[in-house]
Amino acid sequence: MALLVAALLFPLTGLLAHVGPWQFDGETPGSTLAAVRISLGLTGLALAIVVVIGTPAAWYLARLAGSGRTLWEAALLVSVLLPPLALGILLALAFGPGAPVGAWLLRLGVPTSNSAIAFVTAQVYVAMGYYVLAARGAFESVPRELERTAGLLGATPWRVFWRITLPLSRLGLAVALSLAWVRALGEFGAVMVTSYFPAGMPVQLWINLQDSGLPAVMPLLLVFLLSALPLPLLAHLLARHRERSGA
Amino acid sequence: MLDARILKRRREFTLDVRLHVAPGEAVGLFGGSGQGKSTLLSCLAGFEPPDAGEVRVRDRILFPPPVPLHERPVGYLTQNDNLFWHMSVEQNVRFGVGAREKAGARPGPGQDDRDGPQQTTGDWIAELRQALGLESLWHASVRSLSGGQARRVALARMLARRPMVVLLDEPFGGLDSAVMRDLTEALSTWRSRLGFALLAVDHQARWLERLGTRVVAIERGRVVHDGSWEELRRSPPTEQMSRLLD
Questions:
Q1: What would the pLDDT profile of B226-235 be if each residue is shown by its tens digit?
Q2: Which end of chain B is more exposed for a tag (fewer CB within 10 A), N or C?
Q3: CATH number assigned to the domain comprising residue B13
């Protein structure tokens, strides 16, 4: 096990590699900070959309039985299994300015390529399936009998959700959110096709690597790792702690 | 108080039971395992829908169409405590008590026209807490409770709303006989005072007899006896019933 963990974590030693003096920005001054701001801001927005739309969908899926459920799950799995680059191309073809929807949105002043909207759209598409499937598992872990009992004690369905379902599934939901966060923040393939600009962290890393080499990559790489890892790690540690304490 | 006819298809037979329980009356639902008793209670509670029939509590029709759970004046206790494990004992017991009632008004769905003690919710919960020995556990997490303590909390939580109909599905299974006796006595006292209709399922005839004098015996989804325990013991309607009563 120790060997496996050591092997898995070994790439992190790359942060200590001698690549010459680190350059905070690549060729464009201020690009690193701008990339961090764009990534965190737009990923936050994408996650909000994913949670608002995905949570009720996950709850509905968790309560659904029969073939309908299988069909919905299969559809969600397609979105999860699509290779990111392929998804990016498909998004560009479906929503780009050349497509009817994209052209119509452009006429309304909503550009669907190389814009914040295109960036968020790609992230939502990338993260939604992961979030819904993981959140569905979290909701399924709450026994139906507890919810029914709460109902019979006079709680409306809305109150049952807030007082029973949500608190009892919150750790699973945190894991779902972490998954979605990592997928959205780290997305490169789909975002690069639909929204090369504004450049978020993954695309800026690519630009820096191409233009200036490794010294210009390292600072942003560090920030990228620090912004991607803490949330999932915290969710995992919290879940383990709760499990051990039986809380 | 409770008038019901439940039709529900099961794999081996169709449950077809007609039932009337008067206010303040306790009825034991007796029969072997797998004869439809628990399904009947589950349908009456609204946990699963009957295929057909009617459920009425006083003048309120609960089925058909099925009335949402939160509008049913029914308390339901099963072998599973179904306590909300992220809450304390107090939060569990108070869960079904609305904000208006917490402020001191009389509680319960559709209770205004019922006979019963003019007691505020706070007093009623204090009585439950004391009678069921929950004082020392009041602020504890329900995860730390023993089986017997958890049953007492579940009972208190169900009664806190003062339901019109109480359904018990082997709620005291696994408890020692002294605890069962105490809880049965408390339940009988509250039934007389609050006037709720009580329908209880158990495989132990002795416990059901202590709860009330009337028994409805069920076999393969049909009522084979509706009368006193004495009559049932004197002339069991079927061989299986005779064996169960031995």
A1: 999 989 988 8
A2: C
A3: 3.40.50.300
